[in-house]
Design goal:
- The protein is α/β, with parallel strands linked by helices.
- The chain has helices spanning 52-56, 73-87, 94-99, 103-107, 118-124, 142-149, 201-211, 228-233, 251-260, 275-284, 295-302, 304-320; strands spanning 3-4, 17-23, 32-37, 44-46, 133-136, 155-158, 166-167, 173-175, 186-192, 212-223, 247-248, 263-270, 325-332.
- The strands form 2 sheets. It has an 8-stranded mixed beta sheet with strand order 7-8-6-5-9-10-13-12, sandwiched between helices. A 5-stranded antiparallel beta sheet has the order 1-2-3-4-11, with no helix packed on it.
- The longest helix has 17 residues, at 304-320.
- The N and C termini lie far apart (40 Å).
- The model has no long low-confidence stretch (mean pLDDT 91).
Length: 333
C-alpha cells in the first residue's frame, strides 16, 4: 500500500495517508493522478496540484461551465416557475408540480450548469431578492441569469478562469478574479461546485469571512466523501473528476476548515442525483462522461428502470445525509 505524509488541507493531519490512483474520465484521456484520503478526516485531495498550462488543458474554452447554452423558452419558463415557487414569490401551481419531481428529472428542465437545487436552498434560508449575492467560480454566469430572471437585483460573479471581465445576457457583472481579490461585502457568498477546484480552501474561506456582511451566509456546494458513492466506487467515483477537483471534503473536514476560517457549519442540504451512479458506473465500464451526450445514451447503457431506481436511491441517500453532493451553510462564529 502506497502512502504519503502530506498535510491535509482541511484538518492538518500528516497521516500517513493512503494513496489512490485515479483516471481522468471526464474527457477520457485516462491519465493517472494520485490522490490521498486523509487518515483523520477522510477528505480526498490530489497529491500534486497542477498549475499553468498543465492545468488549463483540462479547462478548454468549450468547458461546460463557461458556455451558457441557449435554453428553450418553455424550459426557461418552467425553471422560473419552479424557482418562484421555492422563493414563495409565485409559481404556485406549475412551480409546485415541477418542484415535486425527483431532483434528476428536474435537472432535465433546468439550466445547463451545476446550479441544481441552489434556488431551493436560498428560499429555505430566507434570502431576499435584494440581497447582495456573489457567485464565486461562476463560469459563464448561467446561474446568475437564472436568479436575475426571478427578481434578484444585486448579483455579481467572480471566476479567475474566465477570459476577461464582462456581463451576462441579463446584465450581471462578471469579474475575472479570485475571492481574495474581490472588494466589498456581501449578504450571500456562493460556491456552486467551485471550491473543490481551489488548492487552499481554508485561505479562500478566510477571505469569505472577511467579506461577509453582518448576518451574512456562505453557501458552499461541493461533492463529499461522506457518502455512499465514495464508499462504493472509490477510484471510479465520478465526482473525483481528476485532476480538476483538488480537495473533496468530508463533512468533518468541511467543519474543521470552516472553524479555521472563523466560520461554522449551520446546516447542510444534500442534493445528489442519479448522476452519481450513472457516471460512476460509466467509469467502471471505461466510458468517459463526455461520451454520454443525452438521456437516450443513458437509457441505452443502463435501462430506464435502473436509472429510475438510482434516482429514488439518490433521494433516500439525501434524506439520510449520505448523498455525494451537499450544500454547506456557513456563518460567522
Amino acid at each position: 500500500m502506497n502512502e504519503v505524509n502530506n498535510a491535509c488541507q482541511l484538518c492538518g493531519s500528516t497521516g500517513p495517508h493512503e494513496i489512490l490512483s485515479v483516471r481522468e474520465m471526464y474527457f477520457g484521456t485516462r491519465e493517472l493522478f494520485e490522490y490521498f484520503s486523509c487518515a483523520a478526516c477522510d477528505t480526498l485531495q490530489i497529491v500534486k496540484v497542477l498549475e499553468g498550462d498543465e492545468l488549463m488543458r483540462f479547462y478548454p474554452s468549450d468547458y461546460y461551465s463557461y458556455q451558457v447554452a441557449p435554453q428553450p423558452k418553455i424550459f426557461q419558463w418552467l425553471t422560473s416557475q419552479e424557482d418562484r415557487h421555492e422563493l414563495r414569490t409565485g409559481g404556485r401551481l406549475v412551480g409546485a408540480i415541477v418542484s415535486a419531481l425527483p431532483t434528476g428529472l428536474r435537472g432535465l428542465i433546468g439550466t445547463h450548469d451545476a446550479s441544481g437545487d441552489v434556488v431551493r436552498m436560498l428560499g429555505q434560508l430566507g434570502v431576499g431578492t435584494d440581497a447582495r449575492i456573489i457567485d464565486v467560480g461562476c463560469g459563464g454566469g448561467a446561474l446568475l441569469d437564472r436568479l436575475a430572471r426571478v427578481g434578484f437585483t444585486n448579483l455579481f460573479g467572480a471566476d479567475p478562469f474566465i477570459e476577461a471581465d464582462g456581463v451576462t445576457d441579463m446584465g450581471v457583472p462578471l469579474m475575472k478574479r479570485d475571492m481574495d481579490e474581490v472588494t466589498g461585502e456581501f449578504d450571500v457568498i456562493m460556491f456552486n461546485h467551485s471550491l473543490e477546484h481551489v488548492p487552499d480552501p481554508v485561505a479562500t474561506l478566510t477571505a469569505v469571512y472577511q467579506k461577509l456582511a453582518p448576518g451574512g451566509v456562505c453557501l458552499v456546494r461541493v461533492p463529499t466523501t461522506s457518502s455512499e458513492s465514495w464508499a462504493t466506487y472509490q477510484a471510479n467515483w465520478m465526482n473525483i473528476d481528476a485532476p480538476k477537483h483538488i480537495v473533496i471534503p468530508s463533512r468533518e473536514g468541511m467543519a474543521k476548515a470552516a472553524e479555521k476560517a472563523g466560520l461554522r457549519v449551520e446546516k447542510t442540504f444534500d442534493d445528489s442525483t442519479s448522476a452519481q451512479f450513472i457516471g460512476s458506473e460509466a467509469n467502471r465500464r471505461d466510458i468517459a462522461l463526455t461520451e454520454i451526450k443525452s438521456l437516450g445514451d443513458m437509457v441505452k447503457l443502463f435501462g430506464l428502470k435502473q436509472i429510475w431506481d438510482w434516482e429514488r436511491r439518490a433521494e433516500k441517500l439525501n434524506r439520510q445525509g449520505r448523498g455525494d453532493q451537499t450544500g454547506f451553510v456557513l456563518r460567522a462564529k
